[in-house]
Specification:
The chain has two domains: 210 residues, 3-Layer(aba) Sandwich (Glycerol-3-phosphate (1)-acyltransferase); 222 residues, no CATH class. 60% of the residues lie in helices and 8% in strands. It has 14 helices and seven strands. The radius of gyration is 25 Å and the shape is flat.
């Protein structure tokens, strides 16, 4: 079942990369702390890339929600009880402290047995552009476990930032950024003298370590702009890992510019807006994706040949699955009631359910109408048709983009040169600021 969930997440997010994997211990217990932008989905990319089973803490009321309860049980989640859930189904019954103490003990045993415990110190999932103030639970668990291990320092804390390219978009990307691990031996004296103050100090340390690996900005608009600028600077050729590093540099430069030289910052922003308007007025769908290299006609012909071969199957798959696909997305958006931290989960669950209903329903209908042989053939063929449709659209999109940005622009050399000049001007303004302020 775990493999099936990993596979579903990998279909939704086909590219999951990790930066700094060499910093992660390969064996033994450890605590992973992370930001929490995507609800119950967040632990899964960690499990996929760390390639080890991970337990995590989750609010107790999740055990009372169908489907989600199966998920948290499958991944050995540990319940945390909240005062505001007192009396609710699977909530505490006036015994929050006792129940949480038992959960902390269970988490400590899991760590001492060599397991990984993922903690999300913000405590709640959210889509804000900055980290929320951290709660003290993560620090308390870490210190309690260390004290019970006689301050052996065997359980490191590893900060990992989660960055979703578009967290609720089908076929988008995820990046995990690993920070510097640290241990807690130095907190022993303080913990034995003043437990509360030491918990506060460690919480500050956790906050600082997450600040180094999580992209944060004062607004969503800035976070949405960062990938566009990086794309322009790199001429569209960079991996997620290097993109994240550059975005951190851009954020640092932005903060310093805003404080020290707001006039220069305004000049850069104005130049970016003018360039964006210019590109769109000339017909570019995305002015921030620079011109691509010339198309290799051999490669293009082979892609077209592949498209042609699967077109009949993709067309049939589209006819069968388009309405269920669109309907699952529509219902998912309505079901979350505006909470976009749950949208990707709702889309995955809804997509799977609609796919299964269509798959089994049509197979059974064909079985009854035409006989068991045709029913079996349809049952085998339907997943292949769905896959061919997905591949067809992604291939067509890639070909169309290459033709648009290589063929269309290169047939208009004057326009291309004009856009290139503006690209270079904007890139130079940003690059100069980066060198001086990042």
């Amino acid at each position: 079942m775990r493999r099936l969930i990993y596979w579903l997440i990998s279909i939704f997010y086909p590219l999951i990369e990790i930066e700094g994997a060499e910093k992660v211990p390969q064996s033994g217990g450890m605590i992973v702390i992370s930001n929490h932008p995507n609800g119950i989905i967040d632990p899964v990319p960690l499990m996929i890339k760390l390639e080890r089973p991970i337990s995590f803490l989750a609010k107790s009321t999740l055990w009372g929600i169908p489907i989600i309860s199966s998920f948290v049980k499958l991944f050995n989640a540990i319940p945390i009880y909240r005062h505001k859930d007192d009396g609710k189904w699977f909530g505490p019954k006036g015994d929050v402290a006792e129940r949480n103490e038992a959960s902390f003990q269970k988490a400590g045993k899991h760590l001492r047995d060599g397991g990984i415990l993922a903690l999300f110190p913000e405590k709640v999932t959210h889509s804000g552009s900055q980290l929320l103030p951290l709660k003290t639970g993560a620090a308390r668990i870490a210190l309690l476990n260390e004290a019970e291990s006689d301050w052996s320092g065997d359980i490191p804390i590893v900060p990992i930032g989660l960055w979703y390219e578009h967290k609720s978009r089908f076929r988008s990307s995820v990046l995990l950024v690993v920070g510097e691990p640290f241990t807690l031996e130095d907190y022993r004296e303080g913990y034995e003298k003043d437990e509360r103050e030491t918990v506060r100090q460690l919480t500050e340390k956790l906050d600082e370590s997450l600040d180094e690996v999580v992209l944060q900005a004062e607004s969503h608009e800035i976070l949405r702009t960062l990938p566009l600028v990086v794309n322009l600077l790199n001429k569209g050729r960079s991996k997620l890992e290097s993109q994240h590093t550059q975005m951190q540099s851009l954020l640092s430069a932005y903060t310093k510019l805003k404080q020290q030289n707001p006039a220069r910052l305004n000049k850069i922003v104005d130049a970016m807006r003018q360039y964006d308007q210019l590109g769109r007025s000339l017909g570019l769908r995305n002015p921030w994706q620079p011109d691509l290299p010339p198309v290799s006609w051999g490669h293009l012909i082979s892609r077209f040949a592949g498209l042609t071969l699967i077109t009949p199957f993709a067309a049939l798959g589209l006819l069968i699955f388009y309405i269920p696909y669109r309907l699952s997305g529509f219902i998912a958006e309505k079901a979350i009631l505006g909470d976009d931290t749950q949208l990707s989960l709702a889309k995955i669950v809804g997509g799977v359910l609609f796919l299964l209903v269509t798959w089994f329903g049509l197979s059974i209908w064909i079985w009854n109408q035409l006989g068991n042989m045709y029913g079996v053939i349809v049952f085998i063929a339907l997943p292949l048709l769905a896959f061919s449709t997905m591949v067809w659209f992604e291939t067509l999109q890639a070909i169309a983009y290459r033709l648009t940005h290589s063929g269309w622009l290169r047939s208009r050399e004057e326009v291309r040169a004009f856009i290139d000049k503006h690209q270079n001007d904007v890139s130079k303004l940003i690059s100069d600021a980066l060198q001086e302020y990042a």
